[in-house]
Amino acid sequence: MIDARDERGSMLPAIGGLLVVGLAVLGLCLDVAALHVTYVRASTVSDAAAEAGAAMIDEARLHADEVTLDPVEAQRIAASVVADAGMEPQEVDATESEVCVSAHTAHRTLALTFVGLRDVNVVVRACARPVTG
């Protein structure tokens, strides 16, 4: 005979549900953390590329006490730094006073795929100027 007050096994569905929800939240947290790491890496690469481009000072003008960039060489160096890091140089702009670099990379998600985000494009822009001092 079954006793109506017998509650054995009543927590099993609740624990199962909590386990599924907990694993889903853990997966989302890991995806967001990995996306953050990708953003930080792209930011570091674009900063380094802009600073490397800003180091390409026009030597002919430097002897005349003018600190200006060689735009062609600055673009070439900045684009090569981004490419050496395994990213695509989205845009590299260089003038005589400033270098701006946009680094692009794609991040493939795992848990966020279930909400429709399979690939996230990360584009980071950084600018640098030559300074003296």
Distance between the termini: 91 Å
The tally of helices reads: 3
- Encode the helix/strand succession as letters: HHHEEE
SSE class: alpha+beta
Cα Rg = 26 Å
What fraction of residues sit in β-strands? 15-25%
Which blocks of ≥5 consecutive residues have pLDDT under 50?
Answer: none
Biggest sheet statistics: 3 strands, antiparallel
Q: Shape, please?
A: rod-shaped
Describe this structure in words.
The chain is α+β, with helices and mostly antiparallel strands. It contains three helices and three strands. It has a three-stranded antiparallel beta sheet. A hairpin with a 4-residue loop joins strand 1 and strand 2. Helix 1 (12-54) packs antiparallel against helix 3 (71-84). The longest helix is centred in the N-terminal third of the chain and has 43 residues, at 12-54. The model has no long low-confidence stretch (mean pLDDT 87).
